[in-house]
Amino acid sequence: MQTPTKASRESWNFSVGIVQTEGIKPSDFMLNLIKRKKRRNNNQRYKVHIN
Questions:
Q1: Between 26 and which of 2, 30, 32, 44 could a Cys-Cys bridge form, CB atoms 3.0 to 4.6 Å apart?
Q2: SS3 helix, strand, coil % of the chain, rounded to 5?
Q3: pLDDT tens digits, 19-31
């Protein structure tokens, strides 16, 4: 089974791929937004919660 972060990364990659098959290039803003979202999801994986 995939981890949520891996599934999220693959979902973003799939969505960019779909856009590119239509002959449209994603904007730099959108690519940066996706990069930040992937990085944030990856960082959440390693957070330690202390109650």
A1: 30
A2: 70, 0, 30
A3: 888 888 888 998 8
